[in-house]
Design goal:
Radius of gyration: 28 Å
Largest sheet: 6 strands, antiparallel
Shape: globular
Structural class: alpha+beta
Strand order of the largest sheet: 3-2-4-9-6-7
Number of helices: 17
Strand content: 25-35%
Distance between the termini: 71 Å
Helix content: 10-25%
Length: 806
């Protein structure tokens, strides 16, 4: 039987003649940080002080262990699941192999070899600049040369991320000892029809003795099958009756089936129930789920659709974009993946797009998505640049694509392969075509190589050439009427109300910025007086004119809080939540024309002002809690249209929704000016639209409309907050077990408890809430023990709301 020996202990990192302790998996920055050589680059402006790390060459060393298993086997392989990025591997100074791709694994035959193992990493900058020198300059959204090396692009910096160009053994390393043969690759095709699940395991084996007879045996769901190996290939087929279907969260359960494949040595009979004289050589184990997935891209009266269909059920995708959760990905543990993805699921998310400037994530990520029912849209790692298609890059791209497509195939959560992020759009709109003057830029990958790899290896899943992509060069790549659309003109140029002007078929990116939680800022910028334009705040704002866009977005709705950082911090977070709500409410209520929204973005990779709903320290912004409302199965919203207000009841649940909506036209002083009930009925997975009677529409900035049904509420204020004569908010705060209650005596709009101001570990269970006079809300708080009047006063000081004239 194959035996594996992890290579995790005894590593050192060579630095300035010293041997520093090193962790594997890990990277240079984390090892230097642990050794006290560099300051934490996430704090203050330390990032700039460690830029030299990415320009250096680095060497990791350890001794190959004298493992007795090597004596029992014919071959020993040195296996690296991930090397970042350009490396030479040596044993006692003898070359073993070279690498130039972070997105691949590597295997080297080291049979009979012992001694000092060295992994020498060259600078990714040096590699990228050398390739650029050979192949010529290509345009890019950022000045760093990330398009010339197969490495996580955002380690070179992004408009939300630091420039920390890593190197190191970033995924596990091990020795594998084996004899006769081993399982080299398993390509599982999982399909289901009429309740019968079929698993076809296309297997490749590597042999040390070609003449040995080999048998494969597989089991799944109580079904067993065998196949003889013909040379180095075989296919094992299993039909599993009456399988339970895997569903995305909110649509059903997520049953998973264990698949075990065993490679046997001997003349075992395929029909025999036992193993006879066969001996076990190797085994492969995974979990799978049975489900069907289609992408409906048929043309219709509105253009060209982009609708996910799982098990025959058409979905409005409630999505978020995912970036690497740490700029040093080796630090993201299984527990951390689970925590972050659980946060997404708890917010009502059912689709996570793994964005193309990052990585193919670890098995821990996809395992969690399988279990939580989160659909995964997987970008190939290309983003915001023209990528050369010549060697040495082309061969690396094909190798990484073939490996990762097969690696991720078992996961039922994976439902889409996407060729790139914004590169087709960039070619058309960002002056790339003129600047390229006929040079290669990646089109051959997205429209040729990658769809061919997916079709050959994983025909059960759809592929799309890019995001955004209208499906044809006959149309603009970002045409909202066709395929996927990225809506960035709103954040960059106009007010978020403009989200309501269009109904794209599928909104794959849109978003609005806000700073992270207060405690996150205090930790990252300790000792600095916080201000929107302070040195640390500006350093942790990577977007071009980011603060300018925040300010321009703010003054359309509020008076700019000059000199009041706490007020600025609160209002920018309110504006972020309202902006995203404006888009999602409009687009969800436009189902089935619009079939999904993917918010930019769920998470951050360090403490930064960004579009994220969860900041770099894992704290939820108000946007996160707003997503829980926006992505709930049932959503109530009020839409202003040319012919008046419309009430939309969005029902994404499996059951019909009927009820009476109570509408109240109210004054900001608390008087009910008009009242009516509207009967609403929305079938399963549908939207009901009802016109609001004219006498209930607010008149002027002193009035607003409230709609309530089944515990859900929608509000419509016809004027910007700075024009509304709000009363001075009055409310009472009381401590209760596990949190606080707030009772309003006036209209209290967008009340927010910033729990992290009470204690850095404290978390509130809700975000923004608007209270009418006489209403009470209970806010649960974890990580904070309230004991008396002083704590009640502290809780009150951590409460913010919209105030008159501010």
């Amino acid at each position: 039987m194959l035996e594996a020996s992890p290579l995790t202990e005894g590593w050192i990192l060579r630095h300035e003649g010293a041997a520093l302790p090193a962790r594997v998996p890990g990277c240079v920055h984390t090892d230097l940080l642990a050794a006290g050589v560099i300051e934490d680059p996430f704090l203050g402006r330390n990032e700039t002080g460690v830029a030299w790390v990415g320009r250096r060459e680095w060497t990791y060393e350890t001794d190959l262990p004298a493992v007795s298993a090597a004596e029992r086997h014919e071959q020993t392989d040195l296996v690296f699941e991930g090397l970042d990025t350009v490396a030479e591997i040596l044993l006692d100074g003898r070359p073993v192999g070279r690498t130039r791709n972070m997105h691949r694994s590597y295997r080297f035959d080291v049979t009979g070899m012992t001694g000092r193992l060295s992994v020498r990493f060259g600078s990714a900058y040096a590699e990228a600049e050398a390739v650029r020198g050979r192949l010529g300059e290509r345009p890019s959204a950022y000045p760093e040369p990330y398009a010339y090396v197969r490495k996580m692009a955002c380690s070179f910096g992004w408009d939300w991320g630091p420039t920390l160009v890593t190197a190191g053994i970033w995924r596990p390393a091990r020795l594998e000892h084996w004899s006769t043969a081993r399982i080299a690759r398993v390509r599982p095709l999982v399909t289901v029809e009429d309740g019968v699940g079929r698993v076809e395991l296309a297997v490749e084996v590597e042999r040390s003795r070609v003449e040995a007879p080999l048998t494969l045996e597989a089991t799944v769901g109580g079904v067993r099958a065998r196949a003889q190996v013909d040379g180095t290939r075989a296919t094992v087929r299993l039909d599993v009756p009456d399988v339970d279907l895997w569903w995305p969260r909110g649509y059903g359960e997520q049953p998973l089936y264990d698949v075990e494949l065993t490679l046997l040595h001997g003349e075992a009979s395929v029909s025999a129930p036992g193993r006879g004289e066969a001996g076990t050589l190797d085994a492969w184990r995974r979990r799978i789920g049975f489900r069907t997935v289609e992408l409906d891209r048929r043309p219709d009266a509105h253009g060209t659709g982009f609708t996910f269909v799982v098990n025959g059920e058409r979905l409005f995708a409630r999505g978020v974009n995912w970036i690497p959760d740490d700029v040093f990905p080796s630090r993201v543990s299984r527990v951390r993946y689970r925590e972050r993805l659980r946060q997404a699921a708890d917010a009502g998310v059912d689709l996570v797009r793994v964005w193309g400037g990052g990585i193919y994530e670890s098995e821990d990520f996809y395992d969690a998505c399988d279990e939580l029912g989160l659909l995964v849209w997987q970008d190939f790692p290309f983003a915001c640049a023209a990528y050369p298609e010549e060697q040495p890059l082309r061969g690396e791209v094909e190798a990484e694509a073939r490996e990762n497509v097969v690696r991720l195939m078992p996961h039922p959560s994976l439902v889409l392969w996407n060729g790139n992020n914004e590169n087709l759009w960039g070619f058309r709109d960002w002056d790339w075509e003129r600047r390229l003057a006929g040079e290669s830029w990646g089109e051959g990958y997205y429209l040729g190589l990658l769809p061919r790899v997916v079709a050959e290896s994983d025909p059960t899943r759809p592929y799309t050439a890019g995001s955004p992509w209208s499906g044809s060069w006959d149309r603009h790549p970002n045409d909202p009427a066709h395929g996927t659309h990225h809506s960035w003109e709103v954040w960059n140029q106009v007010d978020y109300a403009d989200y309501r002007l269009h109904v794209p078929r599928f909104v794959a990116e849109f978003g609005w910025q806000a700073p992270p939680a207060y405690a996150t800022l205090r930790r990252a910028l300790a000792g600095e007086e916080l201000a929107p334009g302070s040195p640390g705040m500006l350093h942790h704002q990577k977007a071009e004119d980011g603060n300018g866009k925040l300010e321009r977005g703010l003054v359309r709705h509020f008076a700019l809080p000059e000199g009041d950082f706490d007020r600025w911090h609160y209002l920018t977070q309110v504006n972020q939540a309202r902006a995203v709500a404006a888009g999602i409410e409009h687009w969800r209520s436009s189902w089935p024309v619009c079939a999904g929204t993917v918010v930019w973005q769920l998470n951050d990779c360090w403490p930064v002002t960004s579009w994220a709903a969860i900041d770099g320290d894992g704290r939820e912004k108000p946007l996160y809690h707003e997503l829980r409302r926006l992505y709930a199965d049932r959503l109530l919203t009020l839409r202003a249209q040319d012919n008046g207000l419309v009430l939309a009841a969005v029902n994404q649940s499996a059951d019909g929704w009927s009820g009476t909506v109570v509408l109240r036209r109210m004054s900001v002083e608390g008087a009910v000016l008009a009242r009516a009930g509207l009967d609403v009925s929305a079938g399963r997975r549908s939207v009901a639209l009802l016109p609001v009677p004219g006498e209930l529409e607010p008149v002027g900035p002193e009035e607003y409309l409230v709609a309530d049904v089944d515990g859900l509420r929608a509000l419509h204020f016809p004027a910007a907050d700075r024009e509304i004569p709000y009363p001075r908010p009055e409310f009472e705060v009381a401590l209760v077990p596990g949190g606080i209650t707030v009772t309003a005596h006036t209209l209290v709009r967008d009340l927010l408890l910033q729990a992290d101001r009470l204690a850095p570990r404290a978390r509130a269970d809700r975000g923004l809430v608007t209270l009418l006079p006489g209403e009470t809300v209970t806010i649960g708080v974890r990580g904070w023990e309230a004991r008396g009047e002083r704590d009640a006063a502290a809780a009150r000081s951590a409460l913010y709301c919209v105030e008159p004239g501010r």
